[in-house]
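ok trying this again, last paste got cut off
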Amino acid sequence: MIWEELEHSLADLDRDGLKRRRRTLEAPCGPLACVDGRELISFCSNDYLGLASDPALIDAACAGAREWGVGSGASHVVSGHLLPHETLEQRLAAFTGFERALLLTTGYMANLAIVPALVGRGDAVFADKLNHASLIDAVQLSRAEHERYPHGDLAALERLLSASQAKRKLILTDAVFSMDGDVAPLPELLALAERFDAWLVIDDAHGFGVLGEHGRGSLSHFGIAAHPRILYMGTLGKAAGASGAFIAGSETVIEWLLQRARTYIFTTGSSPIMACALLASLDLIEKGDDRRRHLRDLTTQLRDGLAGTRWQLIPSPTAIQPIIVGDNHEVVRIANALLERGLWVPAIRPPTVPKGSARLRVSLSAAHTSAMVGQLIGALQDLA
């Protein structure tokens, strides 16, 4: 029977320690989760500033629903582009320093919008090997040549660019790598893009709201101003606490995406409720220096607390703090041991991360307290 192959494949995943388990939360997103009737301290969420359940966002969403309803009713290019969407796009462009921004429903959809609209057959994309799955899929959809360089290896990237005879070139990178927490060398990547006349597309899903002046993101973190060859993608379901994504760039390139990006044109516009909530979120992000300072303090506390133990922390200046374990079954065992102590830390395994690098991915939030992080440190010290 045709489904027997799927059953065997699922059994293989279970045998190799790769089968995922979805849990149902019985409480809103926050540092305390309720799963199967148990209260857990959650270190799973990408809600880095603790805004997902902030009263200001809830009030804005409720007011938005009363004024604008729930759905947009159509694609943005038909009749689904409402005033809250337009206002949010203008605010995002001004906040990031670009001429214009385009709002999409998810970061995945945004990445699938950018790459196929800019390059195709006969062109080449030069991508970091640790890029997010959405960036990998975007290149495949574009039908451009896919040149992958070793993670952060600028010399290898330069050689590939120099040897390429492609008509158009595009450098593609995460800004903050979601499983390692390190930051891409954006100034050097921009210099190579200038030298080889390439686009530079930056996915700042995990930097927007957290890094840079007033949370303006990874470009601001490096002091890089808006540039006509840069396309900047930021997600709005992580530090911004809601959902959606945006692409920021020059007037010309954003207009081109509006005309040609399939995942923008051929999908219903996002709910106006989200746009209203995100306008409130931007205010909190801009005024959120205390939240970001607290987040940095928690990061330092965790790293200092685990120094000298068996736990191998990847160098990361961000809220993403991966602890390398290696073996798939072992990382699941440790995650389960933490869960028994009321601490929820996800076990990340291949293909999300390279084979042999299974890890605990600790995600810190400004909503965590020092005591919560101290409890995690104590449990890991005991398990060590």
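PB: full thing came through this time. The chain has a mean pLDDT of 96.
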